[in-house]
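Troubleshooting log. The previous structure file for this entry was overwritten by mistake, so regenerating from the original sequence record. Sequence copied from the archived sheet and checked twice against the printout by T.R.
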Amino acid sequence: MPDRTYLEWPFFDDEHRAMADRLLLWTSAARVNEAHADDLDGRVRALVDQLGHAGWLRHCVPAAYGGARDAVDVRSLCLLRDHLAGADELADFAFAMQGLGSIPITLFGSAELRAAYLPGVAAGTRIAAFALSEAGAGSDVAAIATTARRDSGDWVIDGAKTWISNAGIADQYVLFARTGEPGTRGLSAFVVDADRPGLGVSERIAVMSPHPLGTLRLDGCRVPGTRLLGAPGDGFKIAMATLDVFRPTVGAAALGFARRALDEAIARSRERVAFGQPISGFQLVQAKLAAMAVDVDASALLVYRAAWAKDTGAARITREAAMAKLFATEAAQRVVDSAVQLFGGLGVVSGVPVERLYRAVRALRIYEGTSEIQQLIIAQQLLR
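Regenerated output below.
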């Protein structure tokens, strides 16, 4: 049985603890029809549908639009990603994108936009996406080159977005484009329906832990003026406020990977025999397991500290979110690597859980702000 003592920490209330118990039961059951085993897009669609039917996607939106709580609760998002990532990395991906693609609408959308998009996200009937990155604008958001110009009451968008999760299967994208001066002050955010003329997927990107990723092309894509989030020039603020919410959840996903890797390593160390005894009896193995456990608990403390701070009224948690993402993702890489080492040759056999985790965990140190960017953010917060 995985360690559950962290649920007694004061970061959580009884509703969180009850939800975690239900999650443990749900993630223990098979969810995806075998018909989708070789169909990545179909599997993601099936997972979104199942997450919606189970009620888990309700935690991505406020109660007024079909959500579980009056306001989006970051601790609930983290608990969900923690559990889902340990059970199925693609289930975590499907859940995370519903949240990342809808939080900007929750935070900055008009009542009309919230009513139009959020209930479908919560039900799993609409697939959401977040389109920020470009070929020349990843960590450097200020370098975004995609443009949006006014034309009567509409906006006309031209450019390309890449590394976009759910490209080609999303029903809508929260998309960032330049509407004004160079730099971050000239950026704006829009909700763009996937079927808008002028919007298409120019390529799909295959990565080592399969996810639906691709490049979007926008050629004279006309978007109604009502699809603007906030005001012109609010784009950078919208992106950073969204990442304040979601960076701790990236740490939570890393934590889920690390927990699973530690559990697998403990079980393997008890059953793998070398030199006449289970390897769990060797002190070097015990030291490795101890270091893994410390990384897991330290990650959990930072992740849930950041989530608790946001939920209890902190206007911004930039430093706490960056610390949680930085430490938890780097720690998860160490924990998973140690698990592979303890498995020996079996650890690099395709399909073994720790081999899958080894491929899945690597991207977390890059997306939603690289580890290096998190270090800069933390230092800037300290020096203000």
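The longest strand covers residues 154-165. Archived copy saved in two places this time.
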